[in-house]
Amino acid sequence: MEASKTAAVIPAYNEEKHIGDVVRRTRQKLDDVLVVDDGSRDKTADRAREAGAKVIVHPQNRGKGETIKTGLRHWLERQTDFIIILDSDGQHRPEEIDRFVAAALSADEPKLIVGNRMNDVSSMPRLRRIVNRWMSERISAACGQEIPDTQCGFRMLHRQLIPELLGGAARFDYETEMLIVASRKGFRIDSVPISTVYSDEVSSIHPVRDTLRFFKLMRRYKKL
Description:
Blueprint: E1 6-12, H1 19-27, E2 32-38, H2 44-50, E3 54-58, H3 64-77, E4 82-85, H4 97-104, E5 112-116, H5 126-143, E6 155-158, H6 173-184, E7 189-193, H7 207-222
Helix pairs in contact: 6-7
């Protein structure tokens, strides 16, 4: 697979501390790296440009789902074959992009590949490990296929799938909805092992509000 046919989308919000390093490391793997700044109040956009990324800025915060969709639309219009999505806080190692590329080139050519951190959870906080497993079981059931780590945002998508993913949820529940929509459209989802990295990042997930969004999403798809 040519690097020119694979591009990255990095959704970012107030990540001036980490974004430069994430962009530089991603650009060692891919020529085309897009940061979508979701209305940051710091120098996220400046740091991303300095590191060599293309940058799109939302004038106000619209949510992670909308931020990812902005990036997907950008690369879809430019005839990119595969899009890598990774977080801006350093939780995902750009060096592991090669694992996704290898999976995309496999004989069965999956259209959606999700990182799997659950093979080594020693550095994952215990509560997060329990929640991840609980949610992954329920989302896998809704999808009709096993996805070991549905909460992982490190993903690779084929352009064929992208038009199906440009509606729906606006915030963190979008990443769950992406899996359900892809599954119900008949796409098989593969997983690749990735490292579990936790350092000084601060989660933007609101425990109560975003959990309620998750349950509303699951209830809605049960009715369909």
